[in-house]
Amino acid sequence: MFILEEEDQELFDRVQEQNLNRQYELLTNCIEIGLRKGPAAFDKYFLWALNHVAVATISQFGGRFRKEPIYVGNHKPPHFNDVNEWMDRFISTVQENWFVWKPTELAAYGLWRLNWIHPFIEGNGRTARATCYYLLCARSGALLPGRHIVPERIKENRAGYEAALIAADRAWDDGHLDFTEMESYIADLLVAQLRDAD
């Protein structure tokens, strides 16, 4: 069962909003688990669950990696036959750098790399933003306070988000892993969130 945006915009928007609320509830549970288990809790099953909840009843392929081509503006994500390997590399990089990178670096890498791979048919941005926040909190050692959290701030500041994605993509195309612009962007959003805490 699913609803298309073209069929009923009002219902589609309402379902999408409810999905985001459910995704946040799942995310807070996952953060609590991640705080106890550390890097081992970050795996593909966690990512599948985040995506499934984000697109429930608006996409039939939620919670599984894509098996078809996908195009995102000027960015051409990896071929679908390579998605599993890229995701294994992504998860391994996060786990191996858990205690090496700062929380904002880990979150920035997660946000950029998931967008670069674009492993799902639908809900990649929502899943990447949730993953970014998971990494910020789990690596920082707490569910971070603030009434207006980083994923919401990313949605509202798309210009900075898109510029940081493009900068990291260009560095990768030139043979370098450099997501410093994304890390700076995330750090600024996190400072704003913490200032807004009760």
Summary of the model, kept short:
With 198 residues, this protein is mainly α. It has one domain (9-62, 79-195): Fic-like fold.
What's the topology here?
Elements: H1 9-37, H2 44-55, H3 83-96, H4 103-117, H5 124-140, H6 150-156, H7 158-173, H8 180-195
Question: Could you state the order of secondary-structure elements as H and E?
Answer: HHHHHHHH
Tally of discrete structural domains: 1
What name does CATH use for the topology? Fic-like fold
User: What is the CATH-assigned architecture?
Assistant: Orthogonal Bundle
Strand content: under 5%
By DSSP, the count of extended strands is 0
Shape: globular
- State the low-pLDDT regions, or none: none
> Can you tell me the CATH superfamily?
Fido-like domain
Question: How many individual helices?
Answer: 8
Distance linking N and C termini: 40 Å
Largest sheet: none
Q: Can you identify the CATH class?
A: Mainly Alpha
Rg is 16 Å
Q: How would you classify the helix and strand content by structural class?
A: mainly alpha
Mean pLDDT: 95
| Relative helix content | 55-70%
List the keywords:
mainly alpha, globular, Fic-like fold
What does this 3D model show about the protein?
34% of the residues are buried. The protein is mainly α and 198 residues long. The longest helix is centred in the first third of the chain and has 29 residues, at 9-37. The protein has helices at residues 9-37, 44-55, 83-96, 103-117, 124-140, 150-156, 158-173, 180-195. It has a single domain (9-62, 79-195), classed as Fido-like domain (Fic-like fold), CATH 1.10.3290.10. It has eight helices and no strands.
